[in-house]
Structures are given as structure tokens and as C-alpha cells.
Amino acid sequence: MNLIDFSSSPISLLPAVVALSLAIVTRHVIASLGVGILLGAFLLADHSIYESTQYLGATLFGVFIEDGGLNTWNMSILGFLILLGMMTALLALSGGTAAFANWAQHKVKSKRGSKLLAAVLGVFIFIDDYFNSLAVGSISRPVTDRFYVSRAKLAYILDSTAAPMCVISPVSSWGAYIMTIVSGILISHGIVEYSALGAYLRLIPMNFYAIFALLMVFVVAWFSLDIGPMRKHEIKASQAQCIDEDENHPSQDEELGIKESPNGKVVYLIAPIVILIISTFSAMLVTGLQSLEAQNKAYSLFAALENTNVGTSLIIGSAIGVLSSLIIVLKQKLPTKDIGFALWVGAKSMKGAIIILIFAWTIGKVIGDMQTGSYLSTLAQGNVSPAWLPVILFLLSGLMAFSTGTSWGTFGIMLPIAGDMAASIEISLMLPMLSAVLAGSVFGDHCSPISDTTILSSTGAKCNHIAHVSTQLPYALAVAFISSIGFIVLGQTESLALSLLITTIAFVIVCVVFSVMSRSRMSTSSERHV
Fold first, then answer.
1. What is the DSSP letter of 206?
2. What is the pLDDT of residues 207-257, one digit of tens each?
3. How many other C-beta atoms can be found within 10 angstroms of the C-beta atom of residue 100?
4. CA spacing 20 to 30 A to 471: which of 190, 261, 319, 394?
């Protein structure tokens, strides 16, 4: 069927704006995404109900089937979710989760320590953002629960260490993907001063959003800078033992209804997680090597990561993780019915995340057909002083990632545009403009309710999705403000050292303001209780 072209019309924004607005106002993500999908289909089909129905059927079908075969990426992510849910349940059944929580309660002496544990794990597990959010969530949640840290706070820690860490790590799925795009940009514009890896390494210190988002996580964890909706969730968690009104679930073990083994050991949790990490990373290298051999290319670590099959690697790693967990419970000679029940409820626990992801992918296709990204990209081109282009690209990429729910999609659209603009206007701004796109894409992704990374951070923390979005937003906006200052200075002076200095000063000022806000609200809350 012929779809209406909205590439030059602000109408292309309508489905995304409606879906996002409804999700924030009503707090019902699936219904809100459904309305956005229906609206987009109606507009694309030129208001024909019959053709809208046809389009919806084809779009939903495309989530599962692509080019006559399985949509391997989507199915891999769903399979990874199910397998990780099963592994989480087996870890609980083995008693490893409870043993680790008990151990951590003695080793981790405070609420602050439990939050820092989650943050540190988020920094060190940087293979992939999906993997990060779910794996770190599984490890950290029992510990943060024991110290009455809200699930919203845990979700914020997961989300704000996952994408920011992955985007500045060359040895990650994100780094490989970005280097692939940057390589094409360098070749197309005849830039030979540095390789794709060299350019990527130069982009890292310019990615102000990723750097200061990571720093903000540790500052918030250490000083308990709870502002906005986050403060409400933290108060509820401390009073109701991690049960937030908006989250409607108790701790993990009660939720799954699994009979934990009384003979659990810490190693029963740690060993499968370590095996999962090693297996996933090894699978990435192997699939990358296979791709290089098929293309007759020279083998190297970074080349393998550039050509790896992330979806397949996640499935292989999680399958081995489940197998290792299964071996542990079998060695404990636990009843077969308990093992089967754990596998079932573990897979079932991912139902909510899977449904939201399917709707998010569907509206992503609708937004793509509405050409929302193409329309937004035209806003970056015009008679603007080159010095202002980095901050403009940062904000525009943030808006695009927020509207489309994908940082990777925004990379694919905006990085080549930024490269073309820099080459035609001011080549010395090539790296600052590329870094602005990377930073803005992660910022928009953090704020978007339809972002798959945001959805999986909610899943990893077992947190209500909209509660996570609303509690993370003040921190994300604050870091975006700080980053905007950095990109303004970088564009005006082209001095990275000066930009980092001024941005650091702005970061300190914002943290002081947050501290004052947090303490004033604490005093107000105490007065009310008196």
C-alpha cells in the first residue's frame, strides 16, 4: 500500500507526541502506545480504516517476521529476556540470591553502600545495555531491597550506567556500532588523520552527557540527592520495606513464589553470572570472527566487535547461564516440580516487559514510516553560526531519540548528517558535532518512555515503568543542561580542556543545588511529621 509522505510536515511528530504525552499523563504505557500506533496508521493510510487495518497487520507481523523469515534481532531480544527470567528464578531457587543478599548485608554496611554496589556493577558490566540492565538488576535488587532502596532509585542507577557506559566503551556492542558509522563518515569525507577507533577514542571526552550522567549516579548514591518524584519513592521504600504504591509488588522472592533452598551459597549466584558474562562476550568475539572470515577481512578485537551478532551472542550467553544455574539446582537434588515451576514463573515474569517491547517496536516502525526522524533532521540544517551547531545537534538528537525511543536509530540518522554539515561548513567541528549527536541520543533515550533500554531498566529493577521515567527525568534534564553548556563552550572555543573545566564547575553547582533542595524537603517532611 502507498503511505502518505510526512517527511516535510510537523504532522510526522503527532503519533510520537500523543503516545508519549498519554503515557506520562495516564501512566498506562501499553494503552498509550496503542493509541499512538492507531493514530499513525490512520494518518499513513490517508484516513482509510480498511487500509489502516491492513497496515497495522503488516506492521505487527513485521515485529516477528522479516523478509520471509524470523525477525532475528527482535526474537533474539525476546529470547534473551525469557532465558534471563528463567535464570533469575533458578538463582532464587538455588538459594544463591538470598545467600548473596545475606552476605552483602554483612559486607555492605549501609543503604549508601547498596546503591554504590549497583552503580559499580553497572560501570563494570558494559558489554551491552540490555545485558547490563537485566544482569545488574538481578544481582543488585536483593541487596538494595534489604536496605530499603526504592525500585525507582535502582532503575535510575541501572539506566544511567547502562547506555552512558556502553556509549563510551569501545569494547561494547554500542562502541562497535558507532565505529562502523564513523568509519563510513571518515571515508566519505576523505579524513585520514585518524582511524574509526582513533576518532571514537577522541569522541569519548567530548561526550559530556555520558560522562556527567555517570558521575551524577555516584553523587546521587553517595549523598542521597533525592529530588522530585524520587524523594516520594525513597520515603515509601524506607517506610514500607521496598514496596512502593506505584510499583505494586513485594520483593523478588515473594513475587515469584519460589521455595528457596535453605542451603544456598553466594557462589550459586556469582558463578552463573560470571559464566553468563564470559559466555556472552566470547560469543560476541566468535560471531564477529565468523563474520570477518566470511568477508575475508583481517581479524582483530575491535574488528570482531564491529561485526559481531549481538542478538545471537545474547541468546548463547543467556542459554549457557541458564544451563549453569540448572546444573547447580540439580546438584542440590531439589524436587523436579520445583525446578519446572521456577523455569515457568521465571519466563512468565518477563511477560510485561515483552508486551511493552512489542508495542514499542511497533510504534517505532510507525514513527519510522511517518518519517519523524527525517523531519526532525531538517531542523538542523539552515543558516546557523557553526559555533552553535554542537549544542543544536545535541538538543535535536535528544528530541529525536525521545520521540523515536531509539538512540541507535538516532545515531544512524544524525551522525551522517552531522558529518556532512561539518564537512561543508567547518571541518574542525567534525568531532564536536559527532560527539554532540552521541550525547544527545543517549539523553533522549533516557527520557523516553518508549525506549527499549528504559523499559529493560524498569524490568531489571522490577519497577513500574512510568515511575522510573518520571523519577529519572529531573536528573537527566539536569545533566542535559550541564552538557549543553559544555557544547556551547566547545563550539565557541574548540577547546576541550576549557569545555570540561566549565562543565565540571556547572556540574558541581547543580549538585549543590540538588543537595539544598533535598535537605529543604527533608526538613519540610520532618516538620509535617512533628
1. G
2. 999 999 999 999 999 999 999 999 999 988 887 654 444 444 434 444 557
3. 24
4. 394
Between CA 343 and CA 439, with CA 73 as vertex, the angle to 5 degrees is 110
Distance (Å, rounded) from C-alpha 391 to C-alpha 182? 19
Closest CA to 221 of 90, 110, 324, 326: 110
Average pLDDT over residues 270-296: 87
Distance of CA 85 to the CA centre of its chain: 18
149 CB-near residues (< 8 Å, 6+ apart): 111, 114, 115, 234, 237, 242
Question: Measuring CA to CA, which residue among 171, 198, 167 is closest to residue 183?
Answer: 198
Helix (H) or strand (E) holding 70: strand 69-70
Close Cβ partners of 272 (under 8 Å, ≥ 6 residues apart): 87, 90, 91, 96, 321, 324, 325, 328
Distance in angstroms (rounded) separating the CA atoms of residues 144 and 104: 10
Q: For residue 498, what is its C-alpha cell?
A: 576549557
Tell me the whole-structure pTM to 2 decimals.
Answer: 0.77
In angstroms, rounded to a whole number, what is the distance separating the alpha carbons of residues 321 and 524? 48
Neighbours of 128 (CB within 10 A): 25
Q: Which DSSP string do the residues of 4-21 spell out, in sequence order?
A: P--TTSGGGGHHHHHHHH
